[in-house]
Predict the 3D structure of the following.
Amino acid sequence: MTERVRIMFESDTGVETLWARAIEGDRYRIDNVPFSTPSVSLGDVVEARSDSSGLHFEALYAKSGERTLWITVHEGFASPTGEWLLAHLALLGCAHEAATQTFLAVSVPALVDLDELSIELLTRGPSQVSFDDADPNRMHPLPAAPGSPAVAQLAALDAHLAEEFQKLLALAALSPEELDR
């Protein structure tokens, strides 16, 4: 595996340095989830130029299919909402990196329906969870209104996921000997 390098990305919010791996020439594959760099996701291929201060982003060469969401859980990840979110993201196969006790950068795999995930987050309510799509150019349809069949289906799914999460917590509490039984 190639060695990781750091590439500097300049945006309106400042400079973020992302890990990447060299592919060929001046092309690199992004190797972590961006916290503030818009329109770039885990696995994307970028072109970068080198100077005396390091590597600098030049252009996006190819999208990976991953999408980046920035999610804030206002009560923190130790809250019931935070625990639900982390378990739900794990079930969906989403990679994430925490910047603080309340802020996550999340990589959403291409096979996960981003609109459905957005609706699930919206059903938590803006007082508990807020999120932004890191790609300002991506368009989404408006989420389903409360009381719609889609929201009712999400409520049923949420109950199922909560039950499965409790089972996982119970398994995690077992010793290796108890698991072998």
In short: The CA atoms of residues 165 and 176 lie 19 Å apart.
